[in-house]
């Protein structure tokens, strides 16, 4: 049995069109993107031409693996994101003293509506 736009789960029909998707608002760029809950900030940003890498780091980065720490963004509210990952704790140990909302775009998962301030100008 296959129906487009519906999911059958435990004999209960769920309309996928009724799901509420979290919205990422990229403040500097005035761009809003709806994403599935659990998506990282990096991919929707790059798909919508929102810069998360500055200067040379546009070309010399780890492609979203959390190894370079170059895709820093400020995300609020933090209650709508996952807890800091190990890589974020490592790369952002100094930055978070200045701005506690600082995260890595490739590591932060969106669980609800968030505002994102990119660091590139």
How would you summarize what this structure contains?
By secondary structure, this protein is an alpha+beta fold. It has one domain (20-118): Beta-grasp domain (Ubiquitin-like (UB roll), Roll), CATH 3.10.20.30. 13% of the residues lie in helices and 24% in strands.
Protein described:
This protein is 13% helix and 24% strand. Strand 3 and strand 4 (31-34) form a beta hairpin. The protein is built from 3 helices and 7 strands. The chain has one domain: Roll (Ubiquitin-like (UB roll)). The model has no long low-confidence stretch (mean pLDDT 89). The protein has helices at residues 42-47, 86-91, 95-98, and strands spanning 6-9, 12-15, 23-26, 31-34, 72-76, 102-104, 114-118. With 121 residues, the chain is α+β, with helices and mostly antiparallel strands.
Task: List the SSEs and their pairings.
Elements: E1 6-9, E2 12-15, E3 23-26, E4 31-34, H1 42-47, E5 72-76, H2 86-91, H3 95-98, E6 102-104, E7 114-118
Parallel strand pairs: 3-7
Antiparallel strand pairs: 1-2, 3-4, 5-6, 5-7
Q: What number is the mean pLDDT?
A: 89
- Mind telling me the CATH superfamily name? Beta-grasp domain
**Order of strands side by side in the largest beta sheet?**
4-3-7-5-6
Major beta sheet summary: 5 strands, mixed
- What is the end-to-end distance? 51 Å
């Amino acid at each position: 049995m296959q129906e487009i736009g519906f999911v059958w789960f435990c004999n209960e029909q769920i309309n996928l069109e009724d799901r509420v998707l979290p919205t990422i608002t990229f403040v500097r760029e005035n761009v809003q993107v709806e994403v599935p809950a659990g998506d990282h900030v990096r991919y929707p940003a790059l798909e919508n031409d929102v810069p998360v890498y500055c200067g040379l780091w546009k070309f010399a980065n780890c492609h979203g693996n959390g190894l370079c720490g170059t895709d820093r963004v400020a995300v609020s509210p933090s209650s709508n994101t996952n807890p800091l990952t190990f890589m974020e704790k490592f790369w952002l140990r100094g930055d978070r003293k200045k701005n506690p909302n600082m995260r890595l775009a490739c590591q932060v998962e969106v669980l609800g509506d968030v505002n994102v301030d990119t660091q590139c100008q």
